């Protein structure tokens, strides 16, 4: 038999778990996405920086 004290817990627990799961899933999805964007930005910046550097070093060598 379900006691009166257990009823609010049963009612309250599923939404809390759902919210926590949704937050965990969104965090798991958002973290790699933002990290990938950051890595991509750094890689693009480094690539552009290196191309400028190589162009400059070639010009200075000549």
Written account of the structure:
- The protein has one helix at 6-61.
- The longest helix has 56 residues, at 6-61.
- It is built from 1 helix and no strands.
- The protein has 62 residues and is an all-alpha fold.
Strand content: under 5%
What structural category arises from helix and sheet content?
mainly alpha
- Tell me the number of helical segments per DSSP (H or I, 4 or more residues long): 1
Instruction: Give unreliable regions as ranges.
Output: none
Helix/strand order: H
- How confident overall, as mean pLDDT? 72
Terminal CA distance reads 90 Å
From the alpha-carbon coordinates, what is the Rg to the nearest angstrom? 27 Å
Helix content: over 70%
Q: Count of DSSP E strands?
A: 0
Instruction: Based on Cα principal axes, name the global outline.
Output: rod-shaped
State the major sheet: none
Structure characteristics:
62 residues; 1 helix; mainly alpha
Summarize the structure.
The protein has 62 residues and is mostly helical. It has one helix at 6-61.
């Amino acid at each position: 038999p379900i006691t009166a004290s257990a009823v609010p817990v049963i009612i309250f627990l599923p939404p809390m778990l759902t919210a926590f799961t949704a937050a965990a899933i969104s965090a798991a999805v958002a973290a790699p996405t933002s990290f990938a964007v950051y890595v991509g930005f750094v890689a693009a910046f480094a690539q552009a920086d290196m191309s400028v550097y190589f162009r400059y070093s070639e010009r200075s060598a000549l």
